[in-house]
Amino acid sequence: MIYDATTMRLPLALSADVCVIGAGAGGAMAAMVAAEAKKRVVVIEPGAFLTPADMRQREDAMIPALYADAGARTSSNRGVKILQGKGVGGSTLHNLNLCKRIPSALHERWQKERGLETLDALTLDGLYSEVEALLAVSPVPRAAWNDHNRLLEAGCRALGWRGGGLRHNRTGCLGSGFCELGCAYDAKNNAAKILVPRAVDAGAVFITRCQAVAIEHANGRVAAVEAIAIDAKGESAGRVRIEAPRICVSASATGTPALLARSRIPDPSGSTGRTLRLHPSVVAAGEFAEPVNAWRGIPQTYECTEHLSFDEAGHRSWIVPAFAHPIGTATLLPGLGAEHAALMRHYDRIAVFTAMLHDRSQGTVRADGKTGVAVDYWPDAADQAELRFGLAACARLLFAAGAQRVIVPTFPLRVLHRPEDLAELERIPFEPGAIDLTAVHPMGSVAMGDDPKSAAVDSQGKHHHVEGLWIADASLFPSSIGVPPQLSVYALALHVGRSIAAH
Asked: Would the pTM of this model clear 0.90, i.e. be above it?
């Protein structure tokens, strides 16, 4: 069953074999596995339960409904916009369905540095295969690529750069282009569509609009989760307490370490919340002579991997098309009055490419008040140089694809009229306020490792120092992964869920 905490009699006291905190890719998978193993499972989720009928395809309605802090979450210095999901399904409600595995070279490095005895290459490959079958992951047919993605392909071909089509977990897609606002057509094979129904059928109970406040623990064991019901104003409507000998935290790479810190969960390694990666990204917009209509069709079906390397010496930029609906575009474009209006009048002829950084900089996550999070992050000098490189690569691709001019949304606005102008990007000052960074892939904030001296959780997501506590979300990654994390979160949560079920 799925309940809304604000409609229940409060205060509410429950008991379960397993309490899962968060109903995104990680939490929904762990809950499904535990419930199908005959455990009594209660899942709490601060967001709402939304069906395809609720996906209204309007930014003003869906961004507050689907994104944490109504899409306004940033780093403490306001320099990085951090987009994270909420609701039953978490970020899988609004993501673009890209499915890529962690590169084998990166996994080998993790094993060498972190142990990961229960997560060898064969095990991880099997987990990926199971998830790909469960979610019907497949290549997007080239016939379904829109003009926006074809421009990136054209730019790669003109420059002789490596690129290719992407795989998605979608079935019956109509190409409406509204993926980031939730799918009204139920074509996403995501947590809400695939995992939650199975968990409910197996007896799991989901309680929405319910925010975890603290994990109770004593004598080295978990005891219960303290939570609050959240009303329409975001305020506490009453207390909820779930007693459980097993607790799985899947509250995201920002929410999870903040909750652990707020709960005073011991970590002698001192690593919890201190190794955050964000995959920060920069964008460049090209204006073309003919309409691009980038909002139509599947948003991201082609990638440029020419400058994405997983060795120590290579570049670390992954490039894909990136486009926003009108309000989102308007908030990203700089300028005021007539200058801003002039840019928006060309909306239909604009293509946008983004370079996402496989970052090495480490940020921190702190608890902020009773339920909030505070993120401290800014790329170091090496990552700043790589972001400049990625920005120039996006601009070069746009010119190669036929752009008449390239608009770089810095402050002040930069407009490039020919490829020879790209040298100007090398002089962009990297400081908050001079350039905006966006991050949609927080990860690595409670990195797994088999040595309790250097990690808080092991390679099954089980906490080294508190019995009955597991983590199942992108917090577990020991580093940035350089590719979309959705598939890997599902795979790791399948692994963690089996560990929970076995205890």
From this structure: yes
